[in-house]
Design a protein that fits this description.
The chain has helices at about 40, 45-55, 70-85, 95-110, 185-205, 210-230, 235-255, 260-275, 275-295, 300-305, 310-320, 340-355, 365-380, and strands at about 10-15, 30-35, 60, 90-95, 130-135, 150-155, 160-165, 170-175. The protein has about 375 residues and is an alpha/beta fold. Keywords: Oxidoreductase.
Length: about 375
C-alpha cells in the first residue's frame, strides 16, 4: 500500500449552541461571509456577529454569495478582505458561502493570483499568512466545512471548477444543528442526497482507506436512517443532528479519499443548466453505481454492510420518498429540454471526463462512456453494460 494521509480541520465543534464557540476566538478583526438572507432572517448572522464582538473583534459582513458562487463574486469578496484586513474569515451558510470564502481567502492572502493559477489540484500556495478560516454550515450536505474542496463557477464558459487543496481545509468547523433546522424540505432532500453521494463515492474510490471506509459506512447509515424523517418532520432535532453529523463524517471520508464520476458529471451538468448540486447527485447516483459495479466489488461490500440487496434500486425508492425525479428530463427547477441537452452533450461529456474527480472513480471511462451515462440519467434508463 502506498503512503497515505488523513486530514480534517484542527477543531470540530458540534452540538446545540455550538455557534457560541465564536466568542472564544482570539483576534482583532473578523469578516463574515454569507449567501442570501436566510442567515439574517433567522437571526444566525446577528448571533455570529454578537459572539465575535464578545471576543472583542471588529466585524464586517460580506453577503450575497450566490447558489453557484462565481469567479466574479470571489474576486469581490477578496477585495473586501484586502480593504478590511481581517485575521479571521467566518463563513456561515450553505456550502456555496463556505466554498466562496475559501477562495476569497486565497486571493486575500495572495492578491497576485489569477483564477487559472489554482485550477490544478495542489496548486494553491500556502495560506494562514494573514488569516484563518471558520466554517459554519447551515445545510447538512456539502461538508465544505470539513474538506479541501471548493467548487467555483465560470459563468462565461458554463463550467464548474472543483478546486482541491489541503490549504483550504478550515481551521475550525462549527456544527450547530439549529442552523439546518430551518432548512425547507426540498433543500433538506437535496443536501441530504449530496451527503449520500459523498459517502458512496468515497467508499468505492480508488484512493479509499480503512479510515475513510469506516466514516463512509457510518455516514451512509445515518443518511438512510434519518433523511426521510428530517424531510417529513423538520422539527425533529435528533434527525437533524444525525444528518449534520452524517454530512461531516462523509466530508471527512471524501476529502481524504476523493470522489468519482457522480461529481464529475454533476459539476458539468450543473454548470450548463444551473441544476442544484445535491439534486443532480441524487439523480446520477443510481446510474453511476450501476456503471461502477462492473469494475469493483465494493458496491456489493457496501450493500452487505447496509443489509441492502440492490443499492441503485434502494436509492431510486429513496428519491421517490423525497419527491426527487429519477431522471433529468423530469426536473422542474430549471429547463433541461431534450434539444438543449443534446446540443451540449458532447462538450459536457468531454469536460466531465476531464474533471479531477474522474481520476479516483473505480471504473475507467472515456468521453463516450460519460456521454452514455448522461443519456441514461437524462431518460431514466438503467445502465447494463
Amino acid at each position: 500500500m502506498s503512503l497515505g494521509s488523513f486530514r480534517i480541520p484542527k477543531d470540530i465543534v458540534f452540538g446545540e449552541d455550538a455557534l457560541s464557540y465564536l466568542s472564544n476566538l482570539e483576534g482583532k478583526k473578523a469578516i463574515l461571509v454569507t449567501g442570501g438572507n436566510s442567515m439574517k432572517k433567522f437571526g444566525f448572522l446577528e448571533k455570529a456577529q454578537e459572539q465575535l464582538e464578545k471576543a472583542n473583534m471588529k466585524v464586517e459582513i460580506f453577503d450575497g454569495v450566490e447558489a453557484n458562487p462565481s469567479i466574479e463574486t470571489v474576486k469581490k469578496g477578496a477585495k473586501a478582505m484586502i480593504d478590511f484586513e481581517p485575521d479571521w474569515i467566518v463563513a456561515i451558510g450553505g456550502g456555496s458561502a463556505i466554498d466562496a470564502a475559501k477562495v476569497m481567502w486565497a486571493f486575500y492572502e495572495h492578491p497576485e493570483l489569477k483564477f487559472e493559477d489554482i485550477i490544478e489540484p495542489g496548486s494553491l500556495p500556502k495560506l494562514r499568512n494573514k488569516a484563518r478560516l471558520v466554517a459554519i454550515p447551515s445545510t447538512s450536505g456539502t461538508a465544505s466545512e470539513i474538506t479541501a474542496f471548493s467548487v467555483i463557477t465560470d459563468t462565461e464558459n458554463h463550467i464548474k471548477y472543483p478546486l482541491v487543496s489541503t490549504e483550504m481545509i478550515p481551521d475550525v468547523a462549527i456544527l450547530d444543528p439549529a442552523l439546518p433546522g430551518k432548512m425547507p424540505k426540498h433543500i433538506t432532500a437535496n443536501t441530504g442526497m449530496d451527503v449520500l453521494a459523498h459517502a458512496v463515492e468515497a467508499y468505492v474510490s480508488t484512493a479509499a482507506s480503512p479510515y475513510t471506509d469506516a466514516l463512509a459506512v457510518k455516514a451512509t447509515r445515518l443518511v438512510l436512517d434519518n433523511l426521510v424523517e428530517a424531510y417529513n418532520n423538520g422539527d425533529n432535532m435528533e434527525a437533524r443532528i444525525n444528518m449534520h453529523n452524517a454530512s461531516a463524517l462523509a466530508g471527512m471520508a471524501f476529502t481524504n479519499a476523493s470522489l468519482g464520476l457522480i461529481h464529475s458529471l454533476a459539476h458539468k451538468i450543473g454548470g450548463e443548466f444551473g441544476v442544484t448540486h445535491g439534486l443532480t447527485n441524487a439523480i446520477l447516483l443510481p446510474y453511476i453505481i450501476q456503471f461502477n459495479r462492473k469494475a469493483t466489488n465494493k458496491v456489493s461490500e457496501l450493500e452487505k454492510e447496509l443489509g441492502i440487496d440492490n443499492l441503485p434500486e434502494y436509492i431510486k425508492e429513496l428519491n421517490k420518498k423525497l419527491d426527487i425525479p429519477l431522471n433529468f428530463k423530469d426536473v422542474k427547477e430549471v429547463d433541461i429540454n431534450e434539444e438543449k441537452f443534446n446540443e451540449v452533450l458532447e462538450r459536457m461529456s468531454k469536460n466531465a471526463y476531464e474533471d479531477p474527480c474522474t481520476a479516483t472513480n473505480p471504473r475507467e471511462s472515456n468521453p463516450k462512456l460519460v456521454e452514455m451515462i448522461f443519456k441514461s440519467s437524462f431518460y431514466g434508463e438503467d445502465i447494463k453494460e
